[in-house]
Amino acid sequence: MRGAGDHLSIGERIAFYRIRRGLTQAVLANLVGRSEDWLSKIERGEREIRRLDILTELARAMRVTLGDLVGQPVLVEDDRGDDDVPAVRDALMNPRRLSRLLFDQTAADPLDVMRTEHMTVAAWNDYQNGSLGRTIAALPGLIMSAHELEGDRTRPGWRVSARIHHLAATTLSKIGEVDLAWIASERAMGAADLSDDPLVLASAARASTHALLSAGRYDDALQVGEAARSWLADRAQGGDPDALSLIGMLDLRMSVAAARRQDRETATTLLSRAGVAAAQLGRDANHWQTAFGPTNVELHRISTALDLGDIAYVAEHGPSIDPSGLPVERQVCHRIDVARAHSHLAQDEYAVEALLLAEQQAPQFVRHNPVVRETVRAIYRRSPVTIGRRQSDVMQFADRCRAV
C-alpha cells in the first residue's frame, strides 16, 4: 500500500495528497471547477463525493491514481488467513517472462492444455461463486502455467493464457490492485491476439475495460470496448450465443464508462444496445463467464443510474430486481450498489441490511472492496454513540472490513 493509510476517509486522503503536492484548497478546487468551501467540506467529512468522475478529476489534478483516493486493499485473506496477492504479483512480474533468449524456457514436460483449461474454468467458477480467496490462491500457479503454454506457441495455448490473464485482471480490479490488473489485461490481450480467435480477443478486451474503469480511464475503456465490439459484430449478427453475450457485456461495461464520465445519452444508448442483444439471447446465461442476459442488463441500469447520480431511483427500484438467477458475484455487486444508494440518502438501516446480506453470500468480495469500506466508514461515523443492536452490527461489520 502506498501513501495515505487505508484507515483514512476519501476526504482525508484528498487533504493528504493535496498538502503533499503543495496545493491550497483554493487552487485544487479551482482545478476541478469547484469552490474552496466545497473542497473544505469534503476534506472535513461534512460532504460526500458521490460521483467517480469528480474523484477522477481530483486524482488527475494531484497526479495520483484513482485507487490512491478510493483506498487500496491491505490484505485479501481467505478463511485460513492466507494472503496470496503477493504471490500473484510475483507470478506476473517474474523476470523469466522478460526474455526467452536470456532464460532457458524449455519445459521438461509440456503442459496438458486441456487440463490447464479445466483448472482455469474451475477458478472462474470460484470467482463467480464468490470464493475470492480460492481464486487468488489458484492464480499464481495458473499464471506460471500460462507462461509455459505460451512457450509452445500454439493457438490453444494462447487461448488458455488469455483466459487465465483475463481472470487475473478481473479479480485484481475487483480488489483495487489497479496496476497489477493492467499488467494482467495487457497479457490477456497479447495472448488473445496470437490465439487468432475473435471470441478470445473480445473476452480479453472485456478484461481491459475492467482494468481501465478501475484506473478511471473512461474514454480509453470506451475506445477498447467499441473496437472489440466491431471485431465481433458479424459473428453476433448470425445469432451466435457466445458472440451475443460478449458483445452485450462489452456494451454494459462501456455503459458504466459513459455513466462515470457523466455522458447520460451514451450510457442510455449502450444499455439499449445491450438490451437488444439480451432479447436475442432470450434468457440469462453465462457464456464466456459473462452472466449476460436480461437481468444483468437491468442490474447495469441500476449501476449506471448510481454513477449518474440518480440516487433515489436506485434506492427505490434496485431492491425490486431479483438477481438470484445470476452468479453470486453479480448478486453481491448489485447489493453493494443498492447499499451505496441507501447510504447516500442516510437510510443506514437499509444500507447495512443490504451489505450484511451481501457479506453472507461472499464475505471476501465485500470485506475487501474499497467502495464497501468507504460506505461502511460513512455509516459508522453517522451512527449514534449509544450502543444498540444496529450500532453493534455496524461496529462489527466496520471492524471486519477494516474500515475503522
From TrEMBL:
InterPro entries: Cro/C1-type_HTH, Lambda_DNA-bd_dom_sf, TransReg_Diox_bact_type. SUPFAM superfamilies: lambda repressor-like DNA-binding domains. Keywords: DNA-binding. One of its GO terms (cellular component) is cytosol. The keyword DNA-binding applies. GO terms for molecular function: DNA binding; DNA-binding transcription factor activity. It comes from the Bacteria. Residues 14-69 form the HTH cro/C1-type domain. Gene3D superfamilies: lambda repressor-like DNA-binding domains. This is Helix-turn-helix domain-containing protein.
